[in-house]
Amino acid sequence: MKQQSVETEEDWGDKYGINPPKWLNEHPAIVRRGVVVDQLLRHFHVYQTAWFVDPGIIVKIPRPDTHEISFYRELQKDPESRNYIMPCEIVDDEKHPLMIFPIVSVIYAQQHAFRWPWSRVLKYYDDMLQTVTFLHHRRIAHMDIAMDNFLFSDKDEVLFGQQMHADRPYIIDFERSRQLPLGPGLQPPIDLPPSIIPKPGGIIRRDPYSWDMYCLGWSFYHVYEVNLYRAKSLAPRLVTWYFEWVRGKADCPCPKICSCRPDAHRARYVLFGVRFLVHLLELTDGIFCYTARLFRA
Description:
Number of strands: 14
Shape: globular
CATH architecture of the largest domain: Orthogonal Bundle
Order of helices and strands: HHEEEHEEEHHEEEEEEEEHHH
Number of helices: 8
Mean pLDDT: 84
CATH class of the largest domain: Mainly Alpha
Oligomer: single chain
Low-confidence stretches: none
């Protein structure tokens, strides 16, 4: 009778992509940095160094069926992209190409560490919108916009030769992105790839720029939701109205070019007014509270 082999924890980790492939830490690009990449971020594809390693790195093994490296390479040629795109070192290797990123913060880590007023949340919305506007002006639809795909540095610093500004979001993950023949308002629907934000009603085709805005509206909502745990007060109705307006109708009836939600340029234009009013409300509330304390003293 053949003895059944016992699957060890290491075997199990290799089988399900929890452990990085053995060749990864032997790759010259990793050996040169003198670090060990052993923490899982995404099965089979994304790993990072331990939290105590400084400077830490994230290593992505691009999927062979995507053009993510091509997107990063083209975007890096544009000097303006340094304000919006995470710095990335592309390692050309016929057998094992790699993408190496610095480790930076996610938004909810910052929101839990610091109490954000609602005007600060709207400033973050504007920063995210600037990034989407940058991409759409170049006829690029990200196709997988989500809160987790925006990262930012804790401080002003130079990482991988790129100046990073504190509290400014930088977008990542161009696996599903598309370079389109036409710009916003002209591009007909395309097949939608897998995405972090669920597709309403099981839709399979949509105006790609409109899909980015729908996902951005949900990302705004997730930022808002996290901030509720730390905010001093409930959000002004203007804040909730705004992200609902950007998100638009889930059951979009538009057969071709979508008009259910604004484009990125119009959304920024309206956000300017919303930010002004919310800032005014906070200023008025601050003056009122200060005056009340004076009278109680």
